[in-house]
């Protein structure tokens, strides 16, 4: 009998993901090909990250979320990103 975790599809939370076809064809190609192989790929949203249940968090260019014009803005963005990652891995 196979281990249940092996039978379950891999779950990927991706940013940008399938919804970014026009803006980012590379990540769309990656995600669509993974989906064709049976991988469950979902576009990143804060709500999905907080709910958890993913095996892989795939982020392209995460520094874009931290490029605020001011130092306080960058610090706040970094703190928010770290809090979101922590929450995603706690589930």
Task: Give a nutshell description of this structure.
The chain is α/β, with parallel strands linked by helices. The chain has helices spanning 4-7, 25-36, 46-51, 71-90, and strands spanning 11-15, 40-43, 56-59.
Strand share of the residues?
A: 5-15%
Mean pLDDT: 80
Report helical residue fraction: 40-55%
Number of strands: 3
* Outline type: flat
Count of helical segments? 4
Rg estimate, integer Å = 15 Å
Could you state the order of secondary-structure elements as H and E?
A: HEHEHEH
Question: What class, by secondary structure content?
Answer: alpha/beta
Main sheet: strand order: 2-1-3
Terminal CA distance: 27 Å
- Low-pLDDT segments, ≥5 res: none
Q: Which features does this protein show?
A:
alpha/beta, three-stranded parallel beta sheet, 4 helices, 14% strand, flat
Report on this structure.
The protein is α/β, with parallel strands linked by helices and 91 residues long. The chain has a 3-stranded parallel β-sheet with strand order 2-1-3, with helices on one face. The two termini are 27 Å apart. It has 4 helices and 3 strands.
